[in-house]
């Protein structure tokens, strides 16, 4: 795997910092991005499809797995007033996410974690736009590990393209949770949700 991909701890590509302005969930956000992070020129379409299919009025705590420079967690924290934890393995992305949280007036707990290795506690919701290029194993690890970090009644919601493994992710979610729903299909993107049911 080349060290310039976004799914790496310390991207070696030269810095190319840029500011982007984007409207998400009816509000305007400003994000600093850089080379070596996912979707640096704009908030990718999959993330936007995911955001537009969420309704977190009742939830209080959120975990964003593979947060990148932070558009999902930051916009959800601001719009829904959630207590947000954001993790990634890319240190460059994490630095940007911390800057972007501040830039957009959001306080969030942002730190390094390979999937759930540094996560303790449970959340009302977990979201992920998983790093597809890292391979199916990583995507499935995000699904498998989520149930241990969800409160009863909590949900895992992911976005994934059909051609990049939505059917196998859906089957894995069904296997782990015993339930899965397709919240939205848009231009080949599937938004999938499973809930942790009571004992």
Average predicted local confidence, pLDDT: 93
Give the overall shape, derived from the CA principal axes: globular
Q: Strand content of the residues, in percent? A: 25-35%
> Can you tell me the CATH superfamily?
Vaccinia Virus protein VP39
Major sheet: 7 strands, mixed
The helix fraction, in percent, is: 25-40%
What is the count of β-strands? 9
> Into how many domains do the coordinates divide?
1
What is the terminal-to-terminal distance? 41 Å
Fold-level CATH name:
Rossmann fold
Write a brief structural summary.
The chain has helices spanning 45-52, 71-80, 91-103, 136-146, 166-177, and strands at 18-24, 27-33, 61-65, 83-88, 108-112, 123-128, 150-161, 181-186, 189-195. The chain is of the alpha/beta class and 199 residues long.
Considering the chains and any ligands shown, give keywords for the structure.
seven-stranded mixed sheet, alpha/beta, 31% strand, 199 residues, Rossmann fold, globular
Outline the structure in words.
The structure is a single chain. β8 and β9 form a beta hairpin. With 199 residues, the protein is α/β, with parallel strands linked by helices. The protein has a single domain, classed as Rossmann fold (3-Layer(aba) Sandwich), CATH 3.40.50. It is built from five helices and nine strands. It has helices at residues 45-52, 71-80, 91-103, 136-146, 166-177, and strands at residues 18-24, 27-33, 61-65, 83-88, 108-112, 123-128, 150-161, 181-186, 189-195. The strands form two sheets. A seven-stranded mixed beta sheet has the order 5-4-3-6-7-9-8, sandwiched between helices. A two-stranded antiparallel sheet has the order 1-2.
